[in-house]
Amino acid sequence: MRSKRTVLPSPFISRISIANKGGFVINSDTNEKYFVGQAFLKGALDGDTVKVRIDETKQAQITAKIESILSRNKSVFTAKVFAKKSQLAALLYPFQAKPITIKENAVRASIGDIVKIKIVNWRENHKTAYAKVISIVSNKNDANSDFLFIAGRYELDKLPKIEINDDECAKYKSILDENSKNRVDLTDIPTITIDPDNARDFDDALSIVKKKYGYDLYIHIADVSTYVKEGEPVDICAKERANSYYFPEKVFHMLPEVLSTDLCSLVPNKDRLALTLKVEIDANYSIINYAFFESIINSDKRFTYTEVSSILKKLNSSSFADSLDLLNELTSDFKSRRLNDGLSFAHHEVIFTKDRKNNYNPLTIKKDEDSHRIVEECMLIANRIAAKEIIDLNKDSNRSGLFRNHDIPDQKNEDYINNIIAKFSKAKTDSQKLTIKSINEFFNYFHGTDLYNIISMLFIRKMQKAFYSTYSIGHYGLGFNEYTHFTSPIRRYSDLLVHRIIKKRFKNFNTLPDSIIFCNSGELKAKQASRDYTKIKSLRWLKNQEDKILHGIITNIKPSLITLCETSSETTGYIETRTLPRDLYNLSSNRLILLGKFSKNRYEVGQKIDIKIDQIDMLNQHVTFTLQ
After folding, report:
1. With contact defined as beta carbons under 8 Å apart, do 588 and 595 qualify?
2. Which end of the chain is flanked by fewer CB atoms within 10 Å, N or C?
3. What is the 3-state secondary structure (H, E, C) of 497-547?
């Protein structure tokens, strides 16, 4: 007898958000999110309003398909010109569902140029749309071409912007004087900032004072909310931007630069307004009390992570050495306790730096265990306490808050992570239950090896995505029952909202859900833009390595495809299994091993292999490798 079919939702209308090889739609009636695969987009582009149909396959899997496109989001785009047979075409982003043929090119754009185009005929019943080139943004030889392409793709040049005139600058400067009188004056307490070498704005500063009962730790955060009032034009603009966007060529600041890089930034040797969290800590490094209050501070010294690391290793001397040693001791204890409930792995960053010949080369930014830990643990403490403060403030009312949530992995990803741990770990594990302890023990085993960062990246991708919400479910990755973002109000709108809530100056809680939508979408946009920029730079670097033997670590295996990560640039690429030594290959039940039946050739997730570049597709940002 045929099993009873699932009751499928009726067709619904949604705006589509394009992702890699597909897009996401949301059923507003049920708030369910569906992924529409590349084959079922029906020519939809990012932001289009579409009618979605939900089908069930013969294997009882739910599939979302675009039934029709109701309206186009826009008709003017930033695109890259490329050749398609005998015609010019326009690329908006990799794997776009609606090919665009350039029919008018009065400005004489060439292959590789970045251009503005306008659709002159969508030809909805045909595969291809027609467009004309309006203007050339940059030619293919422009050193900033990649940046301009990404900025145009994500419309960063169209982000709302507030121009600050001289009178408004004077008004903001007067706020500092007017608000300095009735605050706690902490200008005499030794205070420092610790940031990356290339930091452009300074949200946070630290002070530590030894007391009879232990220590007073002061975490000072830029008091943006005193300058940016709820509902003012600058605030509305900041909400729509949601966060700052950082690129080597340019920063798109969330706030006007007079605030983000000057008046709100906790620069050295200048009085600045702060919202300070004072944490009283006993001799055993346990928190015994805390308080938030408005303060005025004066940072004595701007340190980089590298400088702090040298001081802690006694390679350099500093008048702040004792304070840094205290902070190091304190945060080391905090982290060891936190890891009883939270995850320990950390993925280092790969950035691309330009040399004298305008070539971009990969540079690995590894987080120094001591200097980075001081800042990270202090910020985690502040964010956690801020979340607790919001809950305490609202417990006697029906008001909501703003929290940063991270859910547990779904069952499919939990099983995959368990399989990875079982494969690599020498210790016996309970494959039915994923625990924080088992993950941390696993990563400690690989600490300091080539595999550590790659597997960290793999695990992060198998975790749920963190998100902002009006309710708190806790943060699985950090092991916190409640968590929020409080420490970066210069560059994140979510943190600015949290400041207003803590200071009891948030006027209209009915606007909070709408603001959180901006925070979530802005964060996603910033991450995607940064990821796409890095991917283009990594492919350009790989283009110069075409004749070299490189190294890759296998991160995923399918019957037809091996996914791997090139170790120098951390670029994800693929080896088609048909290019492997001839054999009959079988994939293991846990999908971690591909084994040749006759040759016994073995390819496993986590295995380091020698590779060479097979083909680089700059248009679709795709690279294939061959085995060496």
Report:
1. yes
2. N
3. HHHHHHCCCCCCHHHHHHHHHHHHHHHHHHHHHHHHHHHHHHHHHHHCCCC
pLDDT digits (tens, 9 = 90+) for 278-336: 999 999 999 999 999 999 999 999 999 999 999 999 988 999 999 999 999 999 999 99
Q: Do domains 12-71 and 545-627 have the same CATH topology?
A: yes
Q: What are phi and psi of 218, to 5 degrees?
A: -105, 125
Strand segments, DSSP code E, in 106-213 are 114-121, 129-138, 184-185, 192-195, 204-210
Instruction: Check: CB of residue 291 under 8 Å from CB of residue 180.
Output: no
- Kindly indicate whether the domain formed by 12-71 is annotated with CATH number 3.10.20.580: no
pTM of the full structure: 0.91
CATH class of 545-627: mainly beta
| CATH number assigned to the domain covering 76-142 | 2.40.50.640
User: Secondary structure of the chain: what % helix, strand, coil (to 5)?
Assistant: 30, 30, 40
Take residue 626 and report the two structure tokens written for it: 């061959």
Contact by Cβ (8 Å): 200, 249: no
Angle of CA points 347, 353, 355, to nearest 5°: 155
**Separation of CA 340 from chain center:** 25
Task: Label the pairing between strands 301-304 and 192-195.
Answer: parallel
Count of Cβ atoms closer than 10 Å to residue 517 Cβ: 13
Domain range list for the chain: 12-71, 76-142, 166-406+469-533, 411-463, 545-627
Structure tokens at 498: 């949290």
